[in-house]
Amino acid sequence: MTDQLKPKHFEEALQRLEGIVAQMESGDGNLEESLTLFEEGMTLLSFCKDQLQTAEQKIEELSGDSPNEESKDHGSS
Asked: How far apart are CA 14 and CA 28, in angstroms?
């Protein structure tokens, strides 16, 4: 996926990923097109996972529920 096609936001990537799934499920298109869509979908999936992981880490930091802090607390007992 080129930088021009790379999504800027999670919602944009998810919407495109849903479109790819629908297009592949329809069965239209040849093998080459399907492989291209699959590759794009995997890239989008990775982008979405990274975005979700970053958001989860930020939430943990803000709420003070970081696993690193819990292990520090348990280790000092």
From this structure: 21
pLDDT reported for residue 67: 60
Widest CA span in the chain: 62
pTM of the model: 0.71
Domains observed in the chain: 10-75 (1.10.287)
Answer whether 3's CB lies under 8 Å from 41's CB: no
Residues, the chain:
77
Return the ∠ at Cα 60 (arms to 74 and 48), rounded to 5°: 135
What pLDDT, in 10s, does the model give residues 30-65?
999 999 999 999 999 999 999 999 999 999 999 987
Structure tokens at 66: 């970081």
- DSSP structure class, residue 8: S
| Nearest in space to 39 (alpha carbons), one of 53, 23, 20, 26 | 20
